[in-house]
Amino acid sequence: MLDGRNQRCAILLDEEDREMRKPYLDSCLHSDASQPTTMPESDYDASDDEIQDWSVVLSLADQKVPKRGEKDYEPLEGDYDSRNLLEAQGAMFQALEAKKRGFTCNPGQELRYTIRFNRRNQSFYILNAQGKFLDSMGKTDGNQKTWFTKFEALYLIERGTCRITYGEDNSYTLSLEECYTVMLTEDGDIDKYNVYSHLKRNGYIVLEYTLLSTEKETRNFYKDTNIHSVYDKPLFRYTFTNYSTIFYNLQLDIYNRDNVSSAPISQLHICFNVWKPQVNFQKKIPPLPDFQVSVINIENYNFPTLNDISHLLSQANTTLTTSRNPVSNLKFGNENVIIATVDHGLFNFIKLSRTDFHSHGLIWDDKWLKRKHRRAKNLQFSNVYWKSWVNSIRDSLRLLTLRWDSVEA
Amino acid sequence: MNKLPISRNEGLIFDIETIKSLRQLGIVGYLSGTLPLSTQQNNFLGVPLRLLFEELLYVTVHHPEYFIVPDDVMFQGLYASLTDDDLHRIRQFAEKEHNQRLETKRKEFEAKMSQLRTNGKKIPDSAMIYNTEKEPVFHEIKNTSNHIPNIETWNDHFDQPEVQTKLLLQLLQSRPNLSHSLTDYLIFSHLRSNGYFITAGLRFGGKFVAYPGDPLRYHSHLIIKPVYNGEKIELKKLVNGGRLATAVKKVYVIAGLTNKIDVDGFGSQLQPNPKEFIKSLEAGPVKTFSFEWAGFG
């Protein structure tokens, strides 16, 4: 009797659980359409030290009710702990084995999902490929062959969407173990692949880095061809009436100076162009990427040197989101690159951007001036407006006004 | 299966049984692949399990029943040596699996149909026959290649003491800085022998993160930062680590060896028996210091 009641309680609680987890489950189930709501880095923050409750994901497979689990500070004596641990491990291993990797298709159609692999030149293609994944992956040529990069191919296999076969009659499908060893042939490939698949699983569109043909936008808004310094300007010939003009005349053209030297050579390079998920993505003529990612293994590299950074940024070309807030524009800069630091499968994303103070122009805003200006407009002093305006500024700026005459004297 | 596949000096475990048995030894690794159960998320990942270099070394040194297999070399040899007969056997194996799958499907189908009939639905006899010709086929991509007929002989070939010694030496030589790697390893092994579970430490900016038990159930306690021989410890780093660790409710630990490891002497000492040599290094003491941000606020 008691048992029965308890059970009912447990079921009720568990149903509540499922309700609470619904958004998460939904996001898991909607495979391709899933929109990443957060940037990968924030994702990582969240999972930093949270418990991995594998029974959640397990509940997707069979309709077993998910159990809630919590992490403890340290092991306790007794069965309670070891039982919980066994349960957690059991859920994990069950989830690992719950579903076989692979795809189902009608007989005769399997060649559309079979990647042909040439080991000598490491090329991958599918003949007459079909599938939604083609929207953002692969390059189709005139002979109905769709070519993939090794990361794309391996990702498709790992997802269970495609396969690679051995032998001419396609009788033997390569295992995942073989695919990893046969396809990731260079040092560091595994790190790049881990980053690639992480981004893909999050729903981003990822293509191998190419310098897109779109010309790098001219971002030097104040492009002065003459490199000059403040000393070249005969400052004292001007009459300054507000701070803005003073600051404007004091500006140095740092950006252009930096551009004069050619981009240095470095071992680091950008690996991937990344776009936020979008519907009508044209992989042949892609727009400028939203992010560009360079993968660095923390064992082999330190923080990139100035040379490395300049090199990476000279290759970078991403869409700029200009905001109304000048400070946030400064923060994101005109060129930026994301560095993925990898430590045995774990990674952190870091955004490096060149803060370009000059191209932003003057950040100083004479707010008091604007206010007066507006008030003057409202009152419509059309005749005396100009003179009274100048006078009022002169008065308030008396101390800062530099006049040629006074210097002369 | 006690096979530890390495590919380009990275330990990647694809066999779930091996992952289980390693877990029993306190070797956690990091699952890095897409989970077939739910392919569009990053919270739960599947095979392969990526091992740290230290984990790989620890298992091979302390648990002789495990052996390294260089997958990249093995599969090259394996493919080159496949005969028509082998291919035929592989094909037979695949067909057998396929037929088994069809058989279970057919049984399910028939059970369902007869259930419907007993419930009183009128179903013509022609609809009762399960048509295997048109049925969609499931193509499986297996995790491991354990089903290839010759794989056992290849594994046995690598599971020889001499071959293992050679492979271990190769693995050690692939490290960019061997003395640093060995220091890391000795710290790892020291913590492991004290019952800690250890994972890579990137999340908290250390070399390792140590857990009092299985990371599935417990929060981590320690952020480990190795100090190599002769290295000075900047006081600013102490403040840095101490503040960070205290903020995330952990303890920042610096660890180092009291005996200096002589890199140049390695060649001759490692050569005959690297396992014994590493074990002898483990006898040397490891010193650890923890520090905490004592705010006095």
TrEMBL record, chain A:
GO CC entries: tRNA-intron endonuclease complex
Record keywords: tRNA processing
Pfam families, per the entry: tRNA_int_end_N2
GO biological process: tRNA-type intron splice site recognition and cleavage
Domain tRNA-splicing endonuclease subunit Sen54 N-terminal: 117-166
Region Disordered, annotated ranges: 24-46
Family indicated by similarity: Belongs to the SEN54 family.
Name the UniProt record assigns to this protein: BA75_02136T0
TrEMBL record, chain B:
InterPro entries reported in the protein's UniProt record: tRNA_endonuc-like_dom_sf (IPR011856), tRNA_intron_Endo_cat-like_sf (IPR036167), tRNA_intron_Endonuc_cat-like (IPR006677), tRNA_splic (IPR006676), TSEN34 (IPR016690), TSEN34_N (IPR059049)
Keywords: Lyase, tRNA processing
SUPFAM superfamilies according to UniProt: tRNA-intron endonuclease catalytic domain-like
Any one biological process term the GO annotation gives: tRNA-type intron splice site recognition and cleavage
One Pfam family this sequence matches: TSEN34_N
Subunit annotation: Heterotetramer composed of SEN2, SEN15, SEN34 and SEN54. Interacts directly with SEN15.
Function according to Swiss-Prot or TrEMBL: Constitutes one of the two catalytic subunit of the tRNA-splicing endonuclease complex, a complex responsible for identification and cleavage of the splice sites in pre-tRNA. It cleaves pre-tRNA at the 5'- and 3'-splice sites to release the intron. The products are an intron and two tRNA half-molecules bearing 2',3'-cyclic phosphate and 5'-OH termini. There are no conserved sequences at the splice sites, but the intron is invariably located at the same site in the gene, placing the splice sites an invariant distance from the constant structural features of the tRNA body.
Family to which the UniProt record says this protein belongs: Belongs to the tRNA-intron endonuclease family.
UniProt-recorded name of the protein: tRNA-splicing endonuclease subunit Sen34
The species this protein was found in: Komagataella pastoris
Lineage of producing organism: Eukaryota, Fungi, Dikarya, Ascomycota, Saccharomycotina
